[in-house]
Amino acid sequence: MPVRTAERPADRMPEPGGGDLTPQGKGHDRVEDTVVARLAGLIRVWGVVRHFHPWLVWDAVDWEAALARAVDAVLAGRDDTDYRVAVSDMLAVLNDDGTALVDTTPAEGGASAGRESYDGPAALTGPNGELVLVLAGFAHLGGDAGELYDHVTGFLDQMAEASALVVDMRGIDSHVAFSLLPLFGALAGEGVSTPSRCRREHRGIGPQDAWMVGVYQSGISQELPRRLSSWTSPVSVPTVLVFDEANDPGYLEALALRFAGRVSLVHAGARATAVPGTVELLPHGLAARVRSQDILGPDGRRGVPLDATAPAGTPGDLGSPALGAAFDLLGGRRTPAPPPADTLPWPRPARPPRPVSPGPLSVADRIAALAEMWAAVEWFFPHKNLCDSPWEDVLSDLLPTFLAADDETAFAHAVADFTVRMNDGHAIVNHPVLISERGGSCSVPVRVRLLAGDTVVVQIVGDAGGLAVGDVVLAVDDEDTAERRSRLRRRISSSSAAGGELMIDWMLLSGAPDTEARIRVRTAAGIERTLLVPRCPLISTEPRQGRPVFGVLPAGVGYLDLARLATDQVPRAFEAVASAAGLIVDLRSYPKCDGAAVASRLIDRRVAYGIRRVAAPTVEAASAVHETPLTLDPHRPDSCYRGHIAVLVDESTMSLGEEIGLMITAAAGERTLFVGGATNGSIGEITDIRLPQGVRMMFTGADIRGIDGRCLQRSGLQVDVFVTPTLAGVRAGRDEVLEAAVSALTTAPASERTA
Fold it and tell me: Where is the composition biased (Pro residues) (predicted)?
């Protein structure tokens, strides 16, 4: 059974104990740490159930409300007992004995107790002549599976002659499970069908609205039943199987026999759940066991029919409670359990966010929002290993911030602080406070860019009130530009420094509707002046306006501007550049066209250009991923472009732009040259989660890698010729990156520039 450890290292966990949990209590720092540790443990358990407990798919459980109540209880509690009650009450809403709070300290007389006294499998005689096969001590003594198999096979003749049979399977785990197949097969006779395991399965975490469903999927997987039959003489004898948590649920073969009425089942030990699960460690020596699978019988009913449960006792002790229960079942002194009553219902749609009242959120709702974000990122964000700060510390670091965020602004800042910890250029929150602080929904019709420390106007796209290309912005609304950039930078998540500055460029001049931006600039002549420029609704400012979208440049080099080239224009564009000695593909700014439509015209055969990896976690394998090869098929193998290609990139080359860069690299190979500055390093399809009051958080959900396996997140595409614009070049109207690409293509020997 997998065990997930607490997020905080053991040496940082608080000492057990309650005490006054108010800030005025003695030992304030220790008590605050205790509250944080308790809430962090609660969130971890809630997150495991949220994404892996199968019943949340079938049953209408308000799991978010359960967390909110538990948070209130933890904050109101004063000691370890109150904490235990809070967690137990949260889990109780599932109405599942397979998900419950457990102690991590082994109890006396537990499942492993007494095994030292065994030399291996043994055959004993019960009080009424029953044959009792004790297999419990074998694995403990280090025997291998083949040896156990031989022992079990040797018992078959005794089984056939017995009047009744008890098999003590305790302690036989999955590593030697196949050794029991001769026993199960003999009891199966002509054959029985195994039940199916149903579990939640993820391929990333899908957005909570119906989009990008082809990339991210979640659902229920159900394995196909298998046929269990005997390859020796069948044994038809009343039988009881005794098992414990080491082999929950007693193997599918044992359950197949129970569903077919061939055996009865006794579970030994306190954790009488008979379902697979995981254990999540909590403070104060506690742990929560969480169901991870459902068992679906051959008749379509879900659940495990346990005929009896008993304290663990000592394996092989004929007077132990577990074996006593087995003897009672065989003697008719105990009634077997009825078959499960529940059938498998149809999965219910995703529950909408729990409604909360407008205004400041309660502390429980704030912690619930943190839990939703943490659980999504913990299991489905593929780049936690690339974060600047250790991700395992995020709950302990940010819980105090969320606890103290008692107004709308503080809560918005807390959510933004969470995204900043992700170092992901796609991690964005649409909270109204953050939108307002970033300048609102209106801006000045110009584009600015940070060049060598100066914020420079690089494009005019409307009535700019006297601003000119090449002006250096010194202040906005009487706030120094450097200070304004620093303020905005604090709550922006970015994959790279240049990517963060790009986002600030977009926000720097923004403000509320119907306002004027007060902008102080230094002109090319060195004159400082202040202009009042009306703000207007944000518009798409296409770069490089005035230059043809595609065609042949005066130097004889072809040019495609993917920020403005529409997919339906691609055929005409390639016709126009077909005879050019070289081709420039401009990937600066977000592409407008389908990248495959461009790259497919560079190849004459199918090529693989990368790998998409999305999280496919289970509680047993938290870091599992699902990989999909990314391939390109040729548009027309007989007419592909075979010249050299220069790709223009900078910090605005991100996400789809970087993926198109991978496509072109794979398609053109050594004919490709990347010219410009470092790319953004934010690549992969985004997903989102919903938070209270209509707030959404987006983040990268897929890890897109090159065909060589190199991760592009936070590193970007590899640039061959590094060149960035200068203030002098902007003022002179030059495109220095384009000039460098033209030079690279036209100064190479002709044999290297053409096919």
Answer: 336-358
